[in-house]
Design a protein that fits this description.
The chain has 615 residues and is α+β, with helices and mostly antiparallel strands. It is built from 19 helices and 21 strands. The strands form four sheets. Strands 14, 15, 16, 17, 18, 19, 20 and 21 form an eight-stranded mixed beta sheet that branches. 45% of the residues lie in helices and 18% in strands.
């Protein structure tokens, strides 16, 4: 504490970010301050803190600070540090889901249209996010065909055209700008019409599609009529999302909150041209005792950091913290004025009330789901304990599967469940090193032996901070029968470990049927929670093993293909595989992405891009 008191005396009267650490040197809280000297001292001199802040202060063993020139710089730095370190006592945006966007590459001479889940600053226009239950691919297909927008990956420049058109042109699904069959001005007009359509001007296209559908039906071309019917339905889904809420036709976002039980639900509605075009909800943790305005402020900083579109107006239900700094920050991001407003009366006030009701509903449903999950897991684990006749409930379960389709690329996979829930950070893949030919039992013995040896090694190395193979599980499950169970028991016996081992056996339709052990078969009620948990474990370990086997096989195929490219040898092929993970991702990568791979020079990146894009 004496060290902290000395540091407090040196705090400057400037804006900046302060970083609180515990005795292990871990960052537990990041905050910003207009005047560091005043803000940081409050934690140690003021004793009227909320329980959460009191607990945090008890754990502070040291702090650091970074001086910034402005309060806006402090706000951005604080947000970046929170996202990078996930401090225990900061309010954290829990939702990591990604939603589809429609992307139009307006910066290109002949823009393309596509679906993406990654929003990057590349000069393109992004529309969304769209809810996951909305068929964005169908919509993009419709826009592409109706407005004549290309979907291919060719780099097409004006006055530089190919001699031969592709299949899309021959199928009347593309105007073939690559061959100069449409001028840049005409094509740009198509793009602008498509953008207007996405933004809500879609009455015309509905009428055209309806007329074509009627014509097809009159000609007894019911297949075409059905396709047109489905497309009208896609347009109608957009129209349903575009409920008019403002006669002014303005763009804005509207935010409301429901905060309870240390979890806040933020609901955000997207209003474009006066119409609701979408909505999403997010959950934030560590919110107990925190004012709603502060929670919304933290959400806004994390959400709009990478948002594809920032409107000029954002509605909030009450005063938010740091409103001035956030307005300046957002205005600088889009080079336009961004303002927050709090509706008190009228339609916008009613809209905020409606959004708040939605937030409460989502919060309640989440809490109910959590309670159901806890009940399910407790019942499943207790039932499983009784089935295998163990004294203790198996809180840590490891399951093993071997993927051995051919003598080459043999792999093993281990999945781990803790408290009835997948613990993916403890999943492990094993490439079989010592077994020749196809021998499932020997492969299983190798995998379990290597896992046990790693655990024992970590147990004996007291100075090591890494314990990725500890603790040992309470129960081991294997995909197989008595042969596999006996194999694993033999390995455990060799290492003087006593862990119950059971095989998950399947019926003649390759579905989970029951358990097997040296004591005999264990029949399970197929409507029980224990059976559902075992099915989930078996599906998970099989998926893991097959996915790993497929990745090795695909990477081997790709590696042999990559080394055919000029400038790519074994080393660079492995660098590309490590970065992009799969064949498809390398083929789909943009040139800029390839150039930015560490270890790949620009010339090689262009060769790789050209190879996979027919250049």
């Amino acid at each position: 504490m004496s060290d902290i008191e000395e540091k407090l005396k040196t705090l400057p009267e400037q804006s900046g970010v302060y970083i609180m650490k515990n005795a292990d040197g871990e960052i537990i809280y990041v905050g910003k301050a207009k005047i560091l000297k005043n803000r940081v001292r409050q934690y140690f001199n003021n004793h009227n803190h909320s329980p959460k802040v009191e607990k945090m202060v008890e754990n502070i063993a040291d702090f650091e600070y970074i001086i910034t020139d402005t309060e806006q710089e402090a706000l951005i730095l604080e947000n970046n540090l929170i996202k990078e370190n996930h401090p225990k006592y900061n309010i954290l945006l829990k939702d990591d889901k990604t939603y589809p966007f429609i992307k139009i590459t307006v910066h290109e001479d002949f823009p393309r249209i596509m679906v993406t889940r990654r929003v990057i600053r590349d000069g393109s226009k992004y529309f969304g996010p769209y809810c996951s239950n909305f068929n964005v691919k169908e919509l993009v297909e419709l826009i592409s065909e109706f407005f004549g927008l290309r979907k291919c990956k060719k780099n097409i420049y004006k006055n530089s055209y190919d001699n031969k058109s592709c299949l899309y042109y021959q199928m009347s699904k593309c105007p073939a700008p690559c061959c100069g069959k449409i001028s840049e001005a005409q094509y740009r007009n198509n793009v602008n019409n498509a953008i207007d359509f996405i933004n809500g001007k879609n009455e015309y296209i509905t009428n055209v599609l309806s007329a074509k559908m009627k014509q097809a039906a009159d000609q007894l071309d019911f297949e075409t009529a059905a396709i047109l019917r489905d497309r009208i339905k896609s347009v109608s889904i957009i129209k349903e999302k575009q409920k008019i809420v403002s006669a002014s036709g303005s763009d804005y976002d509207a935010i409301a909150i429901y905060n309870d039980n240390d979890i806040a639900c933020i609901e955000i509605f997207f209003i474009r041209s006066g119409k609701i075009v979408g909505k999403e909800h997010y959950f934030l943790s560590q919110t107990e005792g925190v004012a709603d305005g502060t929670v919304i402020s933290e959400f806004i900083k994390q959400y709009y950091e990478n948002a594809s579109f920032i409107p000029p107006q954002i509605l909030v239900p009450n005063e938010i913290a740091d409103v001035g700094s956030i307005e300046v920050w957002l205005s600088e991001k889009i080079s336009k004025s961004v303002k927050f407003s709090i509706p008190k009366i009228g339609d916008k006030f009613k809209l905020i009330e409606m959004i708040a009701s939605n937030a409460k509903k989502e919060h309640s449903e989440r809490q109910l789901k959590i309670m159901r999950d806890i009940s399910f897991k407790n019942n499943a684990l207790n039932s499983l304990r009784d089935l295998i006749k163990c004294d203790e409930t198996p809180m840590i379960i490891e399951a093993y599967d071997i993927s051995n389709i051919s003598a080459s690329s043999k792999v093993g996979a281990m999945v781990c469940f803790e408290a009835g829930k997948p613990c993916r950070s403890k999943y492990r893949n094993f490439k079989i090193k010592y077994v020749l030919g196809q021998d499932d039992y020997m492969c299983m013995a190798e995998v379990v032996s290597r896992r046990v040896e790693r655990g024992l090694s970590e147990m004996g190395n007291n100075s090591s901070d890494r314990t990725s193979f500890l603790p040992f599980p309470d129960l081991i499950l294997v995909d197989g029968g008595m042969g596999h169970v006996n194999t694993v028991n033999k390995v455990l016996s060799d290492y003087n470990l006593s862990i119950p081992v059971f095989g998950i056996v399947k019926d003649n339709r390759h579905r989970t049927d029951g358990l097997v052990s040296p004591d005999g078969n264990v029949k399970i009620d197929k409507s029980s929670e224990a059976f559902m948990l075992l099915t989930q474990i078996q599906d998970e370990m099989h998926r893991r093993a097959v996915t790993y086997h497929r990745s090795i096989r695909d990477n081997s195929t790709l590696k042999s293909e990559l080394v055919k490219i000029k400038g790519v040898g074994e080393k660079k092929a492995m660098i590309l595989l490590k970065r992009f993970k799969s064949v498809k991702k390398i083929k789909d990568a943009q040139l800029e992405e390839l150039i930015n791979v560490v270890g790949i020079d620009e010339s090689t990146a262009k060769n790789v891009y050209g190879y996979f894009n027919g250049q």
